[in-house]
Amino acid sequence: MLAEVLIYVPSVANFRLNWLNDRLAAAHTAALVLEAAPSGMVPESLARKILASVGARAVAMKMGNQRRLLASTDMPSEVEQSVDVRSETWWSSITEAFDTLLNCKTGDVMRLVGPAPMTNGDFLEIVLDETPLRNAMWTFSVNILLLSLAISGITAMLVYFALHYLLVRPMGGITQNMVAFRADPENPARVIASSGRNDEIGVAQEELAAMQREIASMLHQKSRLAALGLAVSKINHDLRNLLASAQLFSDQLSTLPDPKVQRFAPKLMRALERAIAFCQSTLSYGAVQEPPPERKTIPVEPLIDEVHEALGLGLDVPIRWIVAVEKGLTVEADHDQLFRVLVNLARNAMQALESRGSRDPARDQIRITGRREGSVAVIEVSDTGPGVPEKARAHLFQAFQGTTRPGGSGLGLAIAAELVRAHGGDIRLVPGTIGATFSITIPDRAVELDAHRGARALA
To answer: What is the phi/psi pair of residue 25, to 5°?
Structure first.
């Protein structure tokens, strides 16, 4: 609309000037004819025809100090407007054009003055009716309006189709895809296909597709966990009964007088009791019902020895087991839960070393260190294996996502992280080490580990 206004205003003013100049040109031709005729030789009827062809009531010319009336008819008593095209400016032409359009009445007369080329006069002057000019200007305005409406209609259709194909249809497709994806989010065919556009719609499609893939993967993992829980719940009962039977047999073995039996029977009993307890709480991880830790002050070195025996790392195993724990180090923790944490970390270290294929005791090592930092106990489990791949680090402590080893589930690190955090502690992968090093931090009481790390950094 603003463009139409900016086009129409100068156009109607220019149309008025052109119309007036056309009348002046016709009057100039008539003036040449009337001036060439001897005085009084032009009949009145011919003069009327000449004036009618010009559309004027009178034609006069100024020559020197005289103004000569060349022809006239029906002269009005009053002239409402006087226009001199020689001194017209763009602003005055615009204001006078709208004055003619809005204020001109039927019968109004105007005096028009213009140059008189190819004559002996200084300027040409004509008197004419203003009504034909007003009617011509209104006709021009209506034509401009109709043309503008046509252009606006075409523009509106172009804008409509452009918006429809560029925005409405893609947004409708996105909406339909979201509805279809909600009905079956685990179906990979419901993930929206990218159109390859580089604008906001294309970005929205790419981000929606990424989000749908993540949701589908997450739901698939949840379904996998649910199926796993159902399968374990079916196995749990029979496995627990088998372990109970094995425990009865171990009780009978403990009555035998053989020294070796007497030495290994208590360890076997302890292992079976621990296995039965683990079996009893198998489903607790999936249901987020891990029992709260029963914290006691326990020595760290005997616990590490239990882990060493549980892993079966004897003299015939080509992996060096190195323990570097502060003498008399204790930690306030649940014995069984901390045992599970260390077993999971040490077993992962063993599997990382075994993944190389060849065994070299001088190279393959598992090192467990422990120290006290104020009211916080720090235990580190490290190995000299290939380390944790970069792909696995983003979801290191999440079930089924923190492993890239074939056959691995990633549950060991997830369980270890849950148990450590239940103690108010923290577990993390130490960067920049040979192989993989996991640091376990367990406070003796409820202290802020972030404040502890800050104080340690300042020290």
So the answer is: -65, -45
